[in-house]
Structures are given as structure tokens and as C-alpha cells.
Amino acid sequence: MKVFLITVLFLFSACSPGKKITGNSDTTLQAGEFRKSAVVYQSEGNGTADISLTLHPNQTFLFNMVILPQPDTTEEFSVIESAGQWSKQEEWIRLKFGNKKILAGSLFDTTFVDSPQFRVVDDSTVDINDTLDFITIWGINCSKVK
Asked: Model's pTM, two decimal places?
């Protein structure tokens, strides 16, 4: 487990911040209007990382993760951020990360889940199950806030 965390920290430490999303639109997305306001997945209390995934109604999203320094170490905060595009098909939301340095399989690891919360499509794309009230990102439960 320790080797996995060190590997993931190393991969993320090389990531540069993604582009910032500005503006907010209440555009009709698909038949039936999927979203009229942002949906946020927010990490529950833990000592490892603060994570938020915000799905905006204009079919963009912002992923933000602040890796917390561990007690009794000289580590500092690490911030990983990426913007991207999302789309919806049935109960699945497809996230396409804009920051190519972020590996979807590192964030969305099936080792930490026991239900079909997500499907990793490729290095920069993941499908998440919209019917669930939480998903696991980087081994941390993130609750859906509507």
C-alpha cells in the first residue's frame, strides 16, 4: 500500500495545474435537461487528501485534489487540478480530463471499490455511475452534493 501511495504521489507531483474554468451557463445539455446547476463530489473527512469534482451545466468539469502532508514528515501540500469535458449516456457520466499528465486509472482504482462505481476507458477518460450517492476517488469516499 505504501509503495502504491508513493508511486501515485510521484506521478501527481509532476502534474502542472490545469486550465481554469470561468463563467457559468445554464445551457440545455441533452434531451430532458440533465443538469441545471453544478453537481459536486466532495471527499469525506480523512487525513490523506481533500478532493472535489465539480460538474458544471455547460458540460465542463473541474477536478481538484489537495494531498495533505502527513504528520511527522517534512512533506508539503501538493495540488492536482484538471479541467475537462463531460457527457452523459444513460446512468454513466463520461469524464475526459484535459490534463494529459493525470492518469484516470490512478485516481479511479477498482482496487478500492466493490460495486460498479466507474469504468476506466483510457488514460484520460473515465465513466462514473451517476445513480450512486458517492464514488471512490484515490481510495477516498466522495459524496455527491446536489
From this structure: 0.72
